[in-house]
Amino acid sequence: MKATIATLPGDGIGVEVVAEGVKVLQAVAEKYDHRFTFEHHLIGACAIDATGTSLPDETLAACQQADAVLFGAVGDPRYDDPTAPVRPEHGLMALRKALELYANLRPVHVYPALMAVSPLRAELLEGVNLVVVRELTGGIYFGQRQEATEQNLTAHDTMVYDASEVRRIAHLAFKLARQRGRASGGNKVTSVDKANILASSRLWRRIVTEVATGYPDVTFETLLVDAATMHLLRRPRDFDVILTTNLFGDILSDEASMLAGSMGMLPSASLGAGAFGLYEPIHGSGYDISGKGIANPLATILSAAMLLRHSLGLGEEAKAVEQAVEAALDQGYRTADIAGPTTTAVSTEQMGNAVATALS
Known about the structure:
Elements: E1 2-10, H1 14-32, E2 35-40, H2 45-51, H3 57-65, E3 68-73, H4 88-98, E4 103-109, H5 122-125, E5 129-135, E6 145-146, E7 156-157, H6 163-184, E8 188-193, H7 199-212, E9 219-224, H8 225-234, E10 241-244, H9 246-260, E11 267-271, E12 277-281, H10 298-310, H11 315-330, H12 348-359
Helix pairs in contact: 1-10, 1-12, 6-7, 8-9, 10-11, 11-12
């Protein structure tokens, strides 16, 4: 198979972890006789420095022409001022919007070898295998806003959804639950909202409940977001597919990362109507550890596995990458974020090498 993959390392540790993701994809290509072409482009702070914009036209055009995108992270302390007209994060949000990637899938798998790393007790973690489906191009992140000024110390952000946005993400979540049920016995959707307070959430609940009637084989429930945050830590095994809004999905998936032991373990896929997708770790640019060679590349490598499965249709190869990650962990390889007090941590590059070696 031939495929073109646009790689956008971005800022900070994004550069380091994407390099390991590419390394593993190259190992896959060699083992299975595929031909992957990688095209590197700028986004985020490095793009602002070079071009004045966080998403150069060249980068967007390359992504539109590629079969998939492997993304690292954006963010730089120099651009931390939230009122700045151009910020690194704007590039990623604009890219998702331009590519019409409305669904963000964030799977959470607890590896037996890492149970001791999670702050939760092992008996709560055994068998946890869930995915957060986050609506990605609507809601409060894209609604009308007003910044406070010295003259007017009020501000607002607006959470807006229309029925079509809710309906399309709901159908994706129910279809995913059905697929997971066939593969691993899941088959449940939990829709998370704040319908007791927010008008947008009441629309969300109404439309998702309507969509649920078309999937009688899928178990369906609704939870308020405050209850969901508690149950995610008290009984995480009860969740299969968590369907929620842009804001709540951002928060819940970060919380869920603690089940796996570290944000460095969680991959994600941003998908639209077709096979094309953007794949990235859920963590940020990690400037405090950037350049030290200690970042965990496994979330990026697992994102590469999702790329193989969802955009290239290479399910066997994706499974091989996931098994190679588990093999590396079983062999005792740990980066600093998942290393115990008596464990010697390996570097970002060493962890990537361990996964690539396990593939061969």
